[in-house]
């Protein structure tokens, strides 16, 4: 059934394909990653300024300010004020750092480890070796994986939550993220190593 003498392209080197053809050495390394939607950690930003500290910390700050609001009558009260000024500096810096972190850090969703044993649906690229790899190697149930044809289909499925993540090779994942940059998707670890791309002879 030899129709071609060689194949040039992004052909992944996987074990079962050796039964039908021979491969050159990999011309590039490859890996399998998951693309997921990104969700902000902070859904209610109106009260975000209260989040860096607990309620007990806020009460302590108010009480210390009330205590130090009295007139400085003695050396002890002046010494207490100096200590409080230093503590206030530390508290201010801690508050600023925590608030900045809450405003910028994104929470990745979902977590691969917790979802692998659940009934969550995952996507993959039609016509690739990924279906077999996900079932045989990564031990996903066949009912948990769904095939898609195009990048737009991946994006739509992720937006509408038909799937919680899409498995792609790293090179295709980078192309997907470049096309859909700033649209709420990201690539998360771990990276599953595969044989890389090679020419077929």
Automatic annotation (TrEMBL):
<keyword id="KW-0675">Receptor</keyword>
<keyword id="KW-0406">Ion transport</keyword>
<keyword id="KW-0472">Membrane</keyword>
<dbReference type="GO" id="GO:0016020">
    <property type="term" value="C:membrane"/>
</dbReference>
<keyword id="KW-0813">Transport</keyword>
<dbReference type="InterPro" id="IPR015683">
    <property type="entry name" value="Ionotropic_Glu_rcpt"/>
</dbReference>
<keyword id="KW-1133">Transmembrane helix</keyword>
<feature type="domain" description="Ionotropic glutamate receptor C-terminal">
    <location>
        <begin position="54"/>
        <end position="168"/>
    </location>
</feature>
<dbReference type="GO" id="GO:0015276">
    <property type="term" value="F:ligand-gated monoatomic ion channel activity"/>
</dbReference>
<feature type="transmembrane region" description="Helical">
    <location>
        <begin position="79"/>
        <end position="97"/>
    </location>
</feature>
<keyword id="KW-0325">Glycoprotein</keyword>
<keyword id="KW-0407">Ion channel</keyword>
<dbReference type="InterPro" id="IPR001320">
    <property type="entry name" value="Iontro_rcpt_C"/>
</dbReference>
<dbReference type="Pfam" id="PF00060">
    <property type="entry name" value="Lig_chan"/>
</dbReference>
<keyword id="KW-0812">Transmembrane</keyword>
<protein>
    <recommendedName>
        <fullName>Ionotropic glutamate receptor C-terminal domain-containing protein</fullName>
    </recommendedName>
</protein>
<feature type="transmembrane region" description="Helical">
    <location>
        <begin position="46"/>
        <end position="67"/>
    </location>
</feature>
<keyword id="KW-1071">Ligand-gated ion channel</keyword>
């Amino acid at each position: 059934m030899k129709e071609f003498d060689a194949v040039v392209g992004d052909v992944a080197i996987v074990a079962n394909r050796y039964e039908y053809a021979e491969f050159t050495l990999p011309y590039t390394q490859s890996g399998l990653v998951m693309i997921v939607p990104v969700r902000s950690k902070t859904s209610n930003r109106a009260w975000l300024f209260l989040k860096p500290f607990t309620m007990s910390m806020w009460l302590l700050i108010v009480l210390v300010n009330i205590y130090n609001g009295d007139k400085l009558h003695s050396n002890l009260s002046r010494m207490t004020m100096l200590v409080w000024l230093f503590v206030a500096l530390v508290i201010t810096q801690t508050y600023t750092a925590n608030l900045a972190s809450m405003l910028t850090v994104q929470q990745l969703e979902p977590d691969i480890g917790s979802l692998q044993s659940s009934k969550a649906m995952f996507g993959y690229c039609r016509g690739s070796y990924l279906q077999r790899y996900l079932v045989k190697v990564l031990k996903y149930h066949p009912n948990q994986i769904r095939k898609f044809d195009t990048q737009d289909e991946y994006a739509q499925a992720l937006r509408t939550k038909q799937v919680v993540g899409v498995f792609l090779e790293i090179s295709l994942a980078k192309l997907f993220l470049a096309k859909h940059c700033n649209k709420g998707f990201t690539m998360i670890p771990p990276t599953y190593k595969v044989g890389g791309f090679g020419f077929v002879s």
